[in-house]
Specification:
The radius of gyration is 27 Å and the shape is elongated. It has two domains: 136 residues, no CATH class; 40 residues, no CATH class. The chain is built from six helices and seven strands. The chain has a three-stranded antiparallel sheet with strand order 3-6-7, covered by helices on one side. The protein has a two-stranded parallel sheet with strand order 1-2. A two-stranded antiparallel ribbon has the order 4-5. 17% of the residues are buried. The longest helix has 21 residues. With 199 residues, it is α+β, with helices and mostly antiparallel strands. The protein starts with 12 loop residues before the first helix and ends with a strand. Strand 1, helix 2 and strand 2 form a beta-alpha-beta unit.
């Protein structure tokens, strides 16, 4: 069964937010008391003004009732600043679309955390010979090839980096793509990945 509640886009914005909050509260009340085997979902096309301390607590409890809510926000700035951390902690799946600001991207980067990455650095050092004969051969080789005699020093190390940085989210996500992280019902999280929304 699907139910669609279509509120006017213009005029009476505060009344629209109030109705959306009531729908969210009613949804939570219904899924809490019914013993269903199937999943129940609520999609809020514009969650601006509906995220309150109480609604965040309700969202946290939905997973245990085999239910979920999809919240769409133009910017995290639509949510009171005191609720930023609790909201990111309450939602299991997060999606950052192309064109997100670096400020919003920093919140996603914090929520997704860091990972250890192996980096390889190659440094070229010029070889200085002590023996006259070796210096002669090096000079001949440099004259023929145009390059000095060098050695390579390879350094491999583990570095902790953000999975997706705020700058990458703001500037490296191509149009029609988004960065998505998923969480299973058991709470296991998959690392964020770039997804193509056009296909």
């Amino acid at each position: 069964m699907r139910v669609r509640v279509d509120l006017p886009e213009h005029g009476h914005e505060e009344a629209g937010r109030l109705i959306t909050r009531l729908v969210l509260a009613q949804f939570h009340a219904v899924v809490r008391v019914s013993g269903r085997a199937h999943f129940a979902g609520l999609v809020l096309d514009d969650a601006t003004g509906t995220v309150t301390a109480e609604s965040v607590r309700r969202i946290q409890r939905l997973r245990t009732h085999n239910a979920g809510v999809l919240l769409t926000l133009r910017t995290i700035g639509d949510v009171p600043e005191a609720l930023h951390g609790p909201l990111y902690g309450a939602v299991g799946c997060r999606m950052a679309f192309c064109g997100v600001t670096t400020w919003d991207g920093s919140r996603f980067a914090q929520a997704w955390g860091t990972e250890w990455v192996e980096t390889t650095e190659v440094a070229h050092h010029t070889v200085f010979a002590d023996q006259p004969m070796t210096r002669f051969f090096h000079a001949v080789r440099k004259r023929v090839t145009g390059k000095a005699v060098t050695t390579e020093a390879v350094t491999v190390r583990q570095v902790e980096r953000e999975r997706w940085s705020a700058s990458q989210l703001a500037h490296a996500v191509p149009p029609g793509h988004a960065v998505l992280s998923l969480t299973t019902v058991e709470g296991e999280q998959a690392p964020p990945m770039l997804v193509d929304l056009r296909g």
